[in-house]
Amino acid sequence: MTYSRDFRERVLKTRQEENLTLAEVAERFKVAIASVVRWGKVLEPKRTRNKPTKIDMEALKRDVELHPDAYHYERAARFGISESGIRSALKRLGVSRKKNTQASQSRL
User: Fold this and answer.
1) Which Pfam families match (predicted)?
2) Which residues neighbour 89 within 8 Å (Cβ) at sequence distance 6 or greater?
3) pTM for the full predicted model
4) What are the residues whose beta carbons fall under 8 Å from the beta carbon of 35, sequence distance 6 or more?
5) I need a surface site. Which of 26, 71, 88, 108 has the fewest CB within 10 A?
6) H, E, C per residue of the chain
7) How far is CA 17 from CA 31, 34, 101, in A?
8) Which stretches of the chain drop beneath a pLDDT of 50?
9) Predicted pLDDT at 90
10) Which residues contact residue 91 at a Cβ distance below 8 angstroms, ignoring those fewer than 6 apart?
């Protein structure tokens, strides 16, 4: 869970004003000691990376409809990207990987 900036500032300010230890301030505010240490180093939470995708999601959706049994490496070759890129894009589309319809014992 990400705490707001004002809460982080309040925790650090209380620690400094009342000369509390890390454990004492963590106990008072019900947060982990590691969080207080981390906030002392960097107050701002990390920003998420917002990078556009290399693949056209509509084209990938059409490819899944046209080739439902294709493997990731086959799709990756068609689109010119990595298998992990295909895997991530399919996950964003909500497409799960191929599964066998029979249980492993019944295939023996």
Assistant:
1) HTH_Tnp_IS630
2) 53, 55, 57, 60
3) 0.48
4) 3, 26
5) 108
6) CCCCHHHHHHHHHHHHHHCCCHHHHHHHHCCCHHHHHHHHHCCCCCCCCCCCCCCCHHHHHHHHHHCCCCCHHHHHHHHCCCHHHHHHHHHHHCCCCCCCCCCCCCCC
7) 18, 20, 64
8) none
9) 92
10) none
Task: List the Cα angle 12/18/23 in 5-degree steps.
Answer: 65
Note the pLDDT tens digit of each residue in 24-51.
999 999 999 999 999 988 777 667 767 7
Contact 26, 32 (CB under 8 A): yes
For Cα atoms 44, 54, 87, give the angle at the middle one, nearest 5 degrees.
Answer: 85
- Retrieve residue 91's tokens: 């996950």
Tokens of 25: 């301030």
